[in-house]
Design a protein that fits this description.
mainly alpha; Arc Repressor Mutant, subunit A; 3 domains; two-stranded antiparallel sheet; 2 strands; globular
Length: 153
């Protein structure tokens, strides 16, 4: 193999992996238009179901999902209208509105379209799954940092 080919192999592999990520993302996105929800609503429902009680707020949701408070508010409002989420004032701080998933929302999460990916990942050996998880976490941080640098230009 020539030196120029040796250098290009990691780049070619990285490009192929990136294209697989894009394809997987698009597939999951398409699958997430179901059971009367859109992908943003599924994301919000998942976030609220797993977040600790102190993080179940509009601000925490919008920050975690890197979206505006207006967009987050519209997404949550749709879930409230569908009775999948309920809003309640924090008894200790009346300025804060807490968001909780209702029983109906929890039942719907059992039909979450992301579960098809969960099933596939669950079939991996534990050590390989840990490696995938660590790699994805590092990639997410790197992409976020690169995105922040591009916005600052």
């Amino acid at each position: 193999m020539r030196p120029s080919q040796q250098h290009s192999q990691p780049i070619l592999l990285a490009k192929a992996v990136a294209e697989h990520f894009e394809h997987l993302s698009r597939s999951l996105y398409s699958l997430s238009f179901c059971h009367g929800l859109n992908p943003a609503q599924w994301n919000a429902l998942r976030f609220l179901a797993r977040a600790n009680p102190g993080a179940r707020t509009m601000s925490a949701f919008s920050k975690f999902h890197v979206t505006t408070k207006s967009t987050a508010s519209q997404t949550i409002a749709a879930l409230v209208r569908k009775r999948l989420v309920r809003k309640a004032r924090d008894p200790e701080d009346g300025r804060v509105v807490r968001l909780d998933v209702t029983n109906k929302g929890l039942q719907l999460l059992q039909r979450d379209p992301v579960n098809c990916l969960v099933s596939s990942l669950a079939g991996l050996p534990a050590e390989r799954l840990r490696t995938v998880a660590e790699s994805l976490e590092n990639l997410a941080r790197s992409v976020a940092a690169n995105g922040a640098r591009r916005r600052d230009r």
